[in-house]
Write a structure and sequence with these properties.
This protein has helices at residues 18-31, 46-57, 93-103, 107-122, 131-152, 164-173, 180-190, 208-217, 230-239, 266-278, 291-299, 310-314, 318-338, 353-357, 369-378, 380-393; strands spanning 3-7, 38-44, 65-69, 85-92, 158-162, 194-198, 222-226, 243-246, 283-287, 304-308, 341-345, 362-367. With 398 residues, the chain is α/β, with parallel strands linked by helices.
Length: 398
């Protein structure tokens, strides 16, 4: 294996997808035309990084990355061995995590950048020699970042639009307009990858007629959000949407307030999933970014999870938002490792979506209120395109 990774990082924090880091590092070796060489990556905390800096560089503080080329200090007697070793890259996860938070980017993205930086040092680049060398190394870093981005994303994060709020306006007057079915068609033409509707037990917005017309008319994908209610289950089995998303539902709530508690009702939800599976309808679980809930969703046969982004969106200060973002980032990676496909939604708007869209484990975002609200001022077509522009700009980032 060209890349060997040792994770000695033991601090409490977000999990690290070591397999994905190895995969992308192997890709970097190919891009640098040294795929026949091996490289070792060591993940440590600030305490260990400080010890290494003190021992090898006379600096009693942590840094984000250190590189130790194999050629430096190698025993000449070993030159005849059929081993091609670039050297070691040591990364402080503590420092990388602080930098990720400051930059508002996922931890995994920062780890990839540090790996690129460390590998270029192993290949002889040195930004401290001169300004020309610094510019040369920066140019190569940006080139490799672009290559990794292309390798990482075979498909951009998709946008599914919830048209419930169009129906809410209609029901407020008890008339026939605005029509959520017509709104769905406009969203699709503007580039949406799917349409989401929540058929509630009390039918406060979307009606039975709406979902059947949508099933007949939309060209992308219909995602039916629903509670595990007997009557709604029967409609779903008859309708056969492309995806069913199970959500908690309370009559007194204005909107869905949190993720579904799978742990407390595994048998009940498992039976719903089993019924949908017999009808060839995949099921997504609307879940909080809780590893136990994700594991339970995986255990009972869910195909997708939709991570509840409400706490991230509602955070009152930057520290809270960063903490919730890291929880979502870690949960998305953990769910993907389990084999679950990952979506996200709730409360996302034109200011907070970009960071979530950049999480590469997330396939699709479900957004409704922000787009419908913006449509009042700029029109629905433009509101959809504006959100898509935000999502697509993350394609230039890891």
């Amino acid at each position: 294996m060209p890349t060997a990774l040792s994770n000695q990082y033991s601090s409490v924090g977000p999990s690290i997808d070591c397999r994905r880091l190895i995969r992308l590092t192997n890709r970097l070796l190919q891009e640098c035309r040294v795929a026949d060489h091996t490289v070792s990556i060591l993940l440590v905390d600030d305490l260990e990084m400080t010890r290494l800096n003190s021992h090898y560089r006379d600096k009693n503080k942590p840094t984000n990355v250190l590189s130790f080329p194999f050629a430096e200090g190698a025993d000449p007697a070993l030159a005849f061995l059929p081993v091609k070793e670039l050297g070691d890259i040591v990364i402080s996860v503590d420092t990388a995590l602080r930098e990720a938070i400051e930059l508002g980017r996922p931890l995994h993205e920062r780890l990839i950048w540090l790996t690129i930086h460390g590998m270029l040092h192993l290949l002889g680049y040195d930004h401290e020699r001169s300004e020309a060398d610094e510019n040369k190394m920066l140019s190569r870093e940006n080139e490799l970042l672009h290559k990794v981005k292309q390798y990482r994303r075979t498909m951009m994060t998709q946008l599914a639009i919830n048209v419930d709020h169009v129906a809410t306006v209609r029901q407020a007057r008890g008339i026939t307009e605005p029509d959520p079915v017509a709104a769905a068609a406009i969203c699709e033409m503007a580039g949406a990858s799917g349409i989401v509707v929540h058929l509630r037990e009390d039918r406060r917005h979307i009606q039975d007629r709406d979902v059947y017309l949508l099933r007949q008319t939309i060209k992308t994908r219909l995602n039916l959000e629903m509670g595990a209610n007997k009557d709604i289950i029967a409609i779903a089995l008859d309708l056969k949407p492309d995806l069913v998303t199970l959500v908690p539902e309370k009559r007194e709530e204005l909107t869905t307030e949190g993720g579904l508690d799978v742990l407390s009702q595994k048998k009940k939800i498992a039976k719903v999933i089993e019924k949908m599976a017999k009808a060839s309808i995949p099921v997504s679980i609307f879940a909080d970014p809780d590893p136990d809930q994700l594991a339970a969703a995986n255990d009972i046969g869910a195909t997708f999870v939709e991570l509840h982004t409400g706490k991230y969106c509602d955070a009152k200060n930057e520290a809270d938002r960063n903490r919730e973002f890291l929880l979502l980032s870690s949960a998305a990676e953990e769910a993907a490792r389990m084999g679950l496909r990952v979506c996200a939604g709730h409360g996302l708007n034109y200011h907070n979506t970009a960071a979530i869209a950049a999480l590469d484990s997330i396939e699709e975002l479900s957004i409704g209120h922000a787009i419908i609200a913006r449509a009042v001022f700029v029109g629905l077509d433009q509101a959809v395109r504006d959100m898509l522009a935000i999502i697509r700009q993350t394609d230039i980032m890891i």
